[in-house]
Amino acid sequence: MLIATRSGKINISKEKDTKLVAEQFCKLIGLGDLILLSGNLGVGKTTFIKYIINCLQRINRQAMSEVPSPTFNITNEYQIKKILIKHYDLYRVKNEKELNNLGIQENLKKQITLIEWPKIAKKLKIKNSISLIFKYNKNYTERYLTIISKNRKIINGFK
């Protein structure tokens, strides 16, 4: 899979830009990909995931579904033809025991795994992940996305 940007930051302040970047990104991911989404509350992580899932549904000629945040139930699953997507929100997970009970590391190669609030998941020592870092500017008037992938070839000009 090829991903990245030379500039480092992609402006996603407008929702249409968030959608465009998510749709481009969805075409680059596949089974076995583990995507970690970090950033403040309300910065666009779940919206980005919604556009990824809806893009994959559209590509596979399936009806688009609602994509709510799994903040309270911690995980949502989506079956898109042969693609299983597991969407985790670890905001409320407080310790390793809770984390281990989620089974995040099971069947990673057979699904696409999306994890919001992944800080606690670092205890799992997950390798080969793609990090999406969402940030506001100083005035909270603009939002930016940085994509980091340590084990993948980088292309200039993703977007």
Task: Write up this protein.
By secondary structure, this protein is an alpha/beta fold. It has one domain: Rossmann fold (3-Layer(aba) Sandwich), CATH 3.40.50. The protein is built from three helices and seven strands; from the N terminus they run βαβαββαβββ. It has helices at 15-26, 45-59, 96-101; strands at residues 10-11, 34-38, 75-80, 83-89, 112-116, 129-136, 143-149. It has a seven-stranded mixed beta sheet with strand order 1-7-6-2-5-4-3, covered by helices on one side. The longest helix has 15 residues, at 45-59. The protein is globular, with a radius of gyration of 15 Å. The two termini are 15 Å apart. Residues 1-7 and 153-157 have low confidence and may be disordered.
What are the defining features of this structure?
alpha/beta, 25% strand, disordered N terminus, 159 residues, globular, disordered C terminus
| CATH class group | Alpha Beta
- Intertermini distance: 15 Å
Strand adjacency order, main sheet: 1-7-6-2-5-4-3
Instruction: Indicate the overall shape.
Output: globular
Reported for the largest beta sheet, the result is: 7 strands, mixed
Helical stretch tally: 3
The name of the CATH architecture is 3-Layer(aba) Sandwich
Going by helix content, strand content and strand pairing, the class is alpha/beta
The overall average pLDDT, rounded, is 87
Into which percentage range does the β-strand content fall? 25-35%
CATH topology: Rossmann fold
In N-to-C order, the SSE pattern is EHEHEEHEEE
Count the E strands: 7
CATH superfamily: P-loop containing nucleotide triphosphate hydrolases
User: Whole-number radius of gyration?
Assistant: 15 Å
